[in-house]
Design brief:
The protein is of the alpha/beta class and 278 residues long. It contains eleven helices and eight strands. Strands 1-2-4-3-5-6-7-8 form an eight-stranded mixed sheet, with helices on both faces.
Length: 278
């Protein structure tokens, strides 16, 4: 279904509608991909919680409605909360979605119960280590180059086709057990919007909340794969060390999509976290 929020039409999925407590799920990727994989990873929890996930504006099947800014995406989270009359929410964000979740926690703490972060970072400086990881693991991605990786972190992508090709070339870096046929099928049908990507990376240096993490008081679960190349363990460790009521869980042998690579463990971690925190 679609809902109208802040001048955009957001494509949204809902499960567990009758449950009292809500988890809002924010997907990663700036102009790349959509909410489907993250929503599926949380779906086993629909018997206990209302699950809501949507495509950010300019992503997936949501409308291509500028502005594409960090602030606007935070306001869209709040717009979804108000539009659906959700009350206080639990907010889960992975990768870029985790960045938006952190910003939301800082701007709207009164509307938050708990925070769940997966494979994310507190500033754009994580790209420095990601580039080093790319160089070290480039042998895994024979069709990729370090220049493609740099372009992934830039506002200089030529068009949707180039972004799709770069994403496919870099896919082996994201998985410890890489299936090229599955990657081809996924990248072929995914939604890619270079304009959104470029707009959000053009302002990337505005994102740095490292000095404000101590302000987040809600219980926080921080999950990361031990092999995460793009948002490495050190980034999640920093977040967990500086949010007063945070717990870090490292998924050994998993990469950036730890919540999918070891879904049973992820669901169990979230279930324990939700039930053990007030």
């Amino acid at each position: 279904m679609y809902i109208s929020v802040n001048g955009a039409r957001l494509y949204i999925s809902i499960a567990g509608e009758k449950q009292e407590e809500t988890i809002v799920i924010l997907h990663g990727g700036r102009g790349i991909g959509d909410h489907r994989a993250d929503f599926s990873a949380f779906l086993p929890l629909a018997s206990e919680y209302r699950l809501i996930a949507y495509d950010h504006r300019g992503c997936g099947q949501s409308s291509l409605s500028p502005p594409y800014t960090f602030d606007q995406l935070v306001e869209d989270v709040e717009g979804v909360r108000l539009s659906l009359d959700l009350g206080r929410i639990n907010l889960a964000g992975g990768s870029f979605g985790g960045m938006i979740a952190l910003l939301y926690a800082l701007k709207y703490p009164q509307n938050l119960r708990r925070l769940i972060l997966r494979g994310t970072a507190a500033s754009y400086h994580h790209e420095e280590q990601a580039l080093q990881n790319c160089k070290a693991r480039l042998h895994k991605a024979c069709s990729a180059s370090i220049n493609m990786c740099r372009k992934l972190f830039s506002a200089d992508v030529e068009d949707d086709l180039e972004l799709r090709l770069i994403w496919f070339a870099l896919q082996p870096l994201y998985y410890e057990q890489f299936d090229p046929d599955a990657a081809l099928a996924k990248v072929r049908q995914m939604h890619v919007h270079a304009d959104t990507h470029n707009a959000l990376f053009s302002i990337k240096e505005s994102y740095d909340v490292r000095d404000r993490l101590h302000e987040i008081q809600v219980p926080t679960l921080v999950v990361v794969g031990s092999k995460d190349w793009i948002c490495p363990v050190s980034e999640s460790q920093f977040i967990a060390d500086h949010i007063p009521n945070a717990r870090l869980v490292v998924f050994e042998g998993c990469n950036h999509a730890a919540h999918i690579e070891d879904n049973a463990k992820f669901v169990q971690m979230v279930r324990e976290f939700m039930s053990s925190t007030p």
